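fyi for ur records
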Amino acid sequence: MLIKYAMKDKDDKEGREGGDSSMEERILASAERLFLSKGYNLTSMTEIARETGCTQALVHYYFRTKENLFSKIFEGKFHQFIGCIVRREDEDLPFAELVSVRTSRLFDLMADNPRLPFMFLSEFAVNAEQRQTLKDSIVSLCAEAVASLEAKIGGEVESGRIRRTDTMNLTLNMFSLVVTFFVLLPFLEEMGFITDANREDFIAQRKQEIIRTIIGSLKP
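which gave:
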């Protein structure tokens, strides 16, 4: 047993000295799984180390505190979330296709991370400093893309292809329809409306229904 722990400490030391980025990524991946499944308060550094297969000292070496580790994951996920609707490569797409692609991307992100809304809501509720940090990030991330989308919407409105709307309302429609579905998903599963047999088809159908609803709501 002593030999086993001595070897583990040696491996951890080598990882620290070498700046092993793969170990850092493994810790982040383990912490993300635990934070999303159990929440911040019920997740410990000991559990994160156990899930990763390293010592708790190594987790502390890379991230110092649980708060730092959570903040890094939270910011990364939030940027992914916002990034679903802020991508320059989408800007040349026809308007209906742009809306479809961005809604689809947001839906896929939520399908891969169904507990993400709960993570965001809990963190925003208790962490004022995090709210301000993310507010600053969102402003810098979105400013240029929002201006571009506003111009695109304005052109569609002027041509009569869509009703009068703006970026804020369109974005809120996308987020509210997608996020609400995944918030309700555990309830639908618990009530038996979604089963293992129909889950994949149901979610795929719901995705297309949301896209059709958003595009349909824009018709003049």
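The mean pLDDT is 82. thats all i got for now
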